[in-house]
């Protein structure tokens, strides 16, 4: 098997081939490290490559397989981490100068669970500084490039994770999502990104942006791989105050290939308005595919949807300003101008406005739940705007980019983005599928059936920019 084919194997296939002895975890890790060394100088999707720990873990995985002692569904599979997830003894920077030298003495719970399932942690992905932006251009380690066309943004804030998975530089990654940050870069980079229900995956050991909005979840190339990773990451953790003790289903078993009779809501008001033409065309075609596959589609309206992004912004800015208050006061020079500006704005949010936003949040959640009771899932564009060129990025784009995703951080509903087409400039378009609380299984089931019926996930990025090794981007807005 050539290295290009190997780099794009689904996790499910890679793990089973290693279990059968057809592939060696050490050889797979070595090949991936070589590929990262060859290609990531252009994409800048990693901050830290954990070569020695990864090779040691791959040797342990190989020994366990020889003794017929596989540890789980990710045994021997190289996985990357967004660089806000604590990793014992390895710097965890959050792409911010204020954390540039922090090497935690503990692992995030998701890192513990990956290791327990036999995964090999290959490195720490680049990200938008402190998870507080939508472009991927602002990072203490330099901006990220989109592997489909390196002139374009990756999206944020998990841009490095999405770019690495799309470019075959990781078989899967773990990201975080406060208003858009898993699904948005997944849409821009043409991969699968899943934000689970709030409380499904522990955030212990993840540097926060906004405690009551943050989620942790997988970024993969296929829906089945997202199901496998979520099965490893999910579960109650008493160390996370937001974690809830709910049964964790067998997500992979839920992918039965059949959505006949499932009720799919299409909330055209708000979520389809103002979308770029090719984005809308791709999503409408995807809706037609779901209808052809036997789903029952009906238009619906989510109450207070237009208010949700403002509520998210109020809560996010206030909580981020609280978390970073000491840094903003004592070492402002270690924060970028855009981050300082956002934190300064958050410092001006009054207690009254914050509490009122949290009270309104409950009203929005109850309204969404009433609508969701009539449907198995909702479908819509992941984001109204396609990826733009780096020089066209501006801070004002953050609001429109998060318009369709932020409401489901506010309500805590599970939401997934997967590829459903391309723009006229050849950039990926994402379809967002939203489910009822705790029902990631149905979201994954619908996404998997769509993926099986289409070819979008089989396309791979490439082109002259990757081969030429263009110099890193500079500048950009948060």
Automatic annotation (TrEMBL):
Region called Disordered, residue ranges: 458-478
Annotated ranges, domain Amidase: 28-444
InterPro entries xref list: Amidase (IPR000120), Amidase_CS (IPR020556), Amidase_dom (IPR023631), AS_sf (IPR036928)
PROSITE patterns in the cross-refs: AMIDASES
Protein name: Amidase
């Amino acid at each position: 098997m050539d290295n290009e084919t190997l780099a794009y194997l689904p996790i499910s296939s890679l793990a089973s081939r290693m279990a059968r002895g057809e592939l060696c975890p050490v050889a797979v890790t070595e090949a991936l490290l070589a590929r990262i060394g060859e290609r990531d100088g252009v994409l800048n999707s990693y901050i830290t490559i954990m070569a020695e720990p990864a090779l040691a873990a791959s040797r342990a995985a190989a020994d366990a397989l020889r003794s017929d002692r596989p540890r789980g569904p990710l045994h021997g599979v190289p996985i990357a981490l967004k660089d806000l997830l604590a990793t014992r003894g390895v710097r965890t920077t959050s792409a911010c100068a204020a954390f540039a030298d922090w090497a935690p003495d503990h692992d995030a719970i998701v890192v513990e669970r990956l290791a327990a399932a036999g995964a090999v942690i290959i490195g720490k992905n680049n990200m938008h500084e402190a998870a507080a932006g939508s472009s991927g251009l602002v990072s203490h380690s330099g901006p990220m490039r989109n592997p489909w066309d390196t002139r374009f943004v990756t999206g944020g804030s998990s841009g490095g994770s999405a770019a690495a998975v799309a470019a075959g530089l990781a078989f899967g990654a773990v990201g975080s999502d406060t208003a858009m940050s898993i699904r948005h870069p997944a849409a821009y980079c043409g991969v699968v990104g899943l934000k689970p229900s709030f409380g499904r995956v522990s955030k212990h050991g993840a540097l926060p942006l906004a405690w009551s909005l943050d989620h942790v979840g997988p970024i993969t190339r296929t829906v089945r791989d997202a199901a496998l990773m979520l099965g490893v990451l999910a579960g109650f953790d008493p160390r996370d105050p937001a974690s809830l003790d709910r049964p964790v289903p067998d997500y992979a078993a839920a992918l039965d290939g059949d959505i006949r009779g499932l009720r799919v809501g299409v909330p055209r008001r708000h979520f389809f308005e103002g979308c770029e033409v090719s984005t809308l065309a791709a999503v409408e075609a995807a809706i037609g595919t779901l209808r052809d596959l036997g789903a029952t589609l009906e238009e619906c309206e989510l109450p207070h949807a237009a208010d949700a992004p403002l509520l998210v912004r109020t809560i996010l800015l206030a909580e981020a300003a609280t978390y970073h208050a000491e840094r903003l006061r004592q070492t402002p020079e270690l924060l970028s101008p855009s981050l300082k500006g956002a934190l300064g704005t958050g410092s001006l949010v009054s207690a009254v406005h914050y509490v009122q936003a949290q009270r309104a949040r409950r009203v929005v959640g109850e309204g969404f739940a009433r609508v969701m009771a009539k449907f198995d899932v909702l479908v819509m564009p992941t984001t109204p705007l396609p990826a733009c060129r780096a020089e066209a990025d501006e801070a004002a784009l953050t609001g429109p980019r998060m318009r369709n995703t932020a409401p489901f951080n506010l309500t805590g509903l599970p939401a997934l983005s997967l590829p459903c087409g391309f723009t006229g400039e050849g950039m990926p378009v994402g379809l967002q599928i939203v489910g009822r609380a705790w029902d990631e299984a149905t979201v994954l089931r619908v996404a998997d059936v769509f993926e099986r019926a289409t070819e979008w996930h089989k396309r791979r990025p490439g082109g002259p920019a990757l081969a030429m090794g263009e110099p890193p981007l500079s500048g950009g807005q948060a």
